[in-house]
Design goal:
Layout lengths: L7 H7 L1 H21 L7 H8 L4 H11 L2 H13 L15 H18 L3 H14 L4 H13 L3 H18 L23 H19 L1
Helix pairs in contact: 2-3, 4-5, 6-7, 7-8, 8-9, 9-10
């Protein structure tokens, strides 16, 4: 920041010390999430947090070699943590800018849903799909949000596409749900989350057909 246009309180916010403190807290939260799903030992986050730290001069030195600020930061954090934390150093892989943006968008979408701001939540789902077209759960969520907004044609399109894509990420032996349910009155039901989505699709087909 330009000193003559900055107040001390503003300058502190943008200093490297504060930036790296925020980055470190993000990494600690990542570790806690990994422990929660069994990627790392449950007691690892406490040990890592107790020993984690950073040195700005050392980060600058590493960055000159690796030419990546996040990798330099994580490498230095790993140096502070050491072997006593008993976790795989490969877990200090960088959370990329893309990962961070996606997480922020996911949290924003959840917030909009809680506020029942469905148009905004639907827009965020579209952004998430643009960022990762393979995120079929976002296709499902966008379809359900369109359903809430009574945009039935768009909802039907997204939810049908979701059901077509589910087998590609499902367990072996599962099959295309729509292929065997061309008849709207078919009573057979797929399993799990897709069951509810299939019911929505049948209802939406009838609604859309009634508009034609």
């Amino acid at each position: 920041m330009i000193p003559r246009f900055s107040r001390p309180e503003m300058t502190v916010i943008w200093e490297d010390e504060n930036k790296f403190k925020i980055w470190l807290e993000i990494e600690m939260l990542v570790c806690e999430a990994q422990a929660g799903i069994g990627v790392i030992p449950k007691d690892a986050p406490e040990k890592i947090r107790a020993q984690a730290g950073f040195d700005i001069k050392r980060i600058d030195e590493i960055e000159k070699e690796v030419r990546h600020d996040v990798i330099a930061f994580l490498t230095n954090v790993g140096e502070h943590v050491g072997d006593e934390a008993a976790f795989d150093r490969s877990l200090l892989s960088p959370a990329t800018r893309h990962d961070i943006v996606v997480r922020m968008l996911v949290n924003l979408k959840r917030l909009y849903v809680r506020m029942r701001s469905f148009p905004q939540a639907r827009f965020i789902s579209s952004l998430l799909l643009a960022a990762d077209p393979s995120a079929i759960s976002e296709l499902r969520d966008r379809g359900l949000l369109a359903y809430h907004l009574q945009d039935f044609a768009a909802a039907l399109h997204d939810l049908e596409e979701y059901l077509r894509l589910v087998p590609k990420s499902a367990e072996p032996g599962e099959h295309d749900l729509l292929a065997e349910h061309d008849d709207e009155d078919d009573d057979a039901e797929p399993s799990d989350d897709a069951t509810e989505i299939w019911e929505h699709v049948k209802t939406l087909r009838k609604r859309v057909a009634s508009f034609n």
